[in-house]
């Protein structure tokens, strides 16, 4: 999606779904993170969620307000992703 001017500061995003789906549990989904990039300013906003949007999982929510992640959270997630990737690569050769 594009807009005619810069987005400005984003502090929170709201994500939800209507819980519709043809098969049982097909409406359930997991959100790791969301990245919004302002194409005009090149600024990135990262929203770390790591939660289910499902009536039958975790806290049963399908509507969440997610605050923008701070630098410490982002660095922690990057470290965890790098470590997980490294572990998979080193364990994958066995």
From TrEMBL:
Q: Which InterPro entries match?
A: PLAT/LH2_dom (IPR001024), PLAT/LH2_dom_sf (IPR036392), Polycystin (IPR051223)
**Which Gene3D superfamilies does the entry link to?**
PLAT/LH2 domain
Instruction: Report a single Gene Ontology molecular function.
Output: calcium channel activity
Question: An example of a Gene Ontology BP annotation on this entry?
Answer: detection of mechanical stimulus
What cellular component terms from Gene Ontology apply here? membrane
* PLAT domain location: 1-67
Q: Which Pfam families match?
A: PLAT
Protein name in the entry: PLAT domain-containing protein
């Amino acid at each position: 999606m594009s807009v005619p001017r810069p987005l400005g500061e984003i502090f929170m995003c709201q994500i939800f779904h209507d819980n519709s789906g043809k098969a049982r549990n097909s409406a359930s989904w997991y959100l790791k993170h969301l990245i919004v990039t302002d194409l005009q300013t090149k600024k990135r906003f990262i929203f770390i969620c790591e939660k289910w949007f499902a009536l039958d999982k975790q806290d049963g929510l399908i509507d969440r307000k997610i605050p923008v992640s701070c630098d410490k959270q982002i660095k922690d997630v990057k470290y965890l992703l790098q470590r997980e990737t490294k572990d998979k690569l080193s364990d994958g050769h066995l």
